[in-house]
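Lecture 7 notes: from sequence to structure.

We start with a single chain of 341 residues. Read the sequence below before looking at the structure.
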Amino acid sequence: MNFVLFFMEQLPQLKALLNVPKTCVILSHRNPDGDALGSSLALSLYLQSLNHKTRVLFPSEYPVNYEWMPQSEEIIIYDLNQKLAEETIKSADLIFCLDFNSLERIDRMAAMIMERKVPKIMIDHHIDPEPFADLVFSEVSSSSTSEIIYDLIKAISPDIRLSAILMDCIYTGLMTDTGSFHHATSPKVFTMMADLKRQGLDDTRIQELVNNSLPDKYLKLLGHCLFNRMELIPESQFGLIYLTKEDYRNYDIRRGDTEGIINYLMMLKSVRIGALVMNQPTIVKLSLRSKGDFSVQQICSKYFNGGGHRNASGGSSKLSLEDTITKLKDVVTQSLTQVIH
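Now the structure, written as tokens:
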């Protein structure tokens, strides 16, 4: 069904649910990124303006370069405070599921969410959403979940003047999920940007806070990655960077420290597909990027228990780091051969 028609069909149901103040719980996925934070906090601020009580929950911690975001200090992290997270879920009148379309993405919270007999609203832009929500606002052509949050706010409150902190959140999601407007853009994205700028958005400030506030160790880690951990395979137009468990110890790598490293591979003319492969304590994580029409989403969903978008996806492997890299090289070579033929 056309997203606009589907959107308008479900909007009255959402308005009815929000007609009287409720306790709203907003969830997003493990390893939250800028869009998970931006969309969740933007929705939370908007619902608060309608006199709803809100709590934002993530399965795991978020990167330090988002600590400046409004009300981020109030986010409940399941890994750090399981009891409070579970009590919060039990208290919910409405549950919003943002920036994920599969219950696997919220780990151990999934069972509790399904047990709760309260309305669940999915707001997302990834392909093939699972049918666990009562209302679904999902559009894969949207740049970000933050873009859909903007649409919903405008549809429910057409005359609203967005607060500065709410715009900061929406812009953060929009900026990060488009790679600073490098991909997944559309005329609508820039129309949104124009509206936010007219209302006073300080986009330069957000760019500085997100991209230019990294700790010193980031450059040391980046140098190590580029000099010691990068492998280029010209015949496959493929490049990868890998991190060992020893690297995690030596560079004290924490959540968010590897953000953006894969982008340096994609700067190379010879690289069409790039991968960052990280040997974390209990699992090997993969982050893939591509140029043009080549879909890394298909690789991640078919071979690495993941998914995402055509040009930016992630996955995981229970194989060793070495075996994961070997499998990845074989899969990329095979996939490129199929594309060529």
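The radius of gyration is 20 Å. Keep this in mind for problem set 3.
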